[in-house]
Amino acid sequence: MAKVELKQPVVAEISELLDGAQSAVVVDYRGLTVEQDTVLRKQLREAGVTYKVYKNTMIRFAAKGTVFEALDPNLEGPTALAVSKTDATAPARLIANFAKTAPKLEIKGGIVEDTYYDAKGMQVIATIPSREELLGKLLGSIQSPITNLARVLNQIAEAKAEA
């Protein structure tokens, strides 16, 4: 079999992975122990993030002609790709959080909702809470005044009942 024929399925796999992705983060994983890598992969998998090591040339071929082509300058050295189709901030957030315990793990850059960010930009994106957390905070802020109003009305009703 020719080398090109062997590489086509890998390029197709990456293309399929990137198709419809909300975010893709390029990571330098050098220096991680096997145990750390296993823990990171488990956390990402549980969050619905696909994390896999690919050759840089394969990622370049798959990203050609898409918004993910902007990742090209980051495709040097060992590269892992973390992709999410559901939560745009999950890959950056989880990797940055994990990097606190494994400082050798480094975000090179990424694409979030069709916009390229360098390593510093990805660190900022990593601080954005998940959609569920934001909805929870919104719901909490809406419920709080309603609960207080109900409590006051109840106290007024109790006061009138006693009088």
How would you describe what is shown here?
The protein has 163 residues and is an alpha+beta fold. 53% of the residues lie in helices and 17% in strands. The chain has six helices and five strands; from the N terminus they run αβαβαβαββαα. It has a five-stranded antiparallel beta sheet with strand order 2-3-1-4-5. A hairpin with a 2-residue loop joins strand 4 and strand 5. The longest helix has 32 residues.
Percent helix range: 40-55%
Based on secondary structure, the structural category is alpha+beta
How would you sum up the major sheet? 5 strands, antiparallel
Shape label: elongated
Strand order of the largest sheet: 2-3-1-4-5
H and E order:
HEHEHEHEEHH
Number of helices: 6
Q: Identify low-pLDDT runs.
A: none
Question: What's the end-to-end separation, in Å?
Answer: 93 Å
Computed Rg: 22 Å
Strand content bin: 15-25%
Strand tally, please?
5
List key phrases describing it.
single chain, 163 residues, alpha+beta, 6 helices, 5 strands, 53% helix
Layout of secondary structure:
Blueprint: H1 3-18, E1 23-28, H2 34-46, E2 49-53, H3 56-63, E3 80-84, H4 90-99, E4 106-112, E5 115-118, H5 119-125, H6 131-162
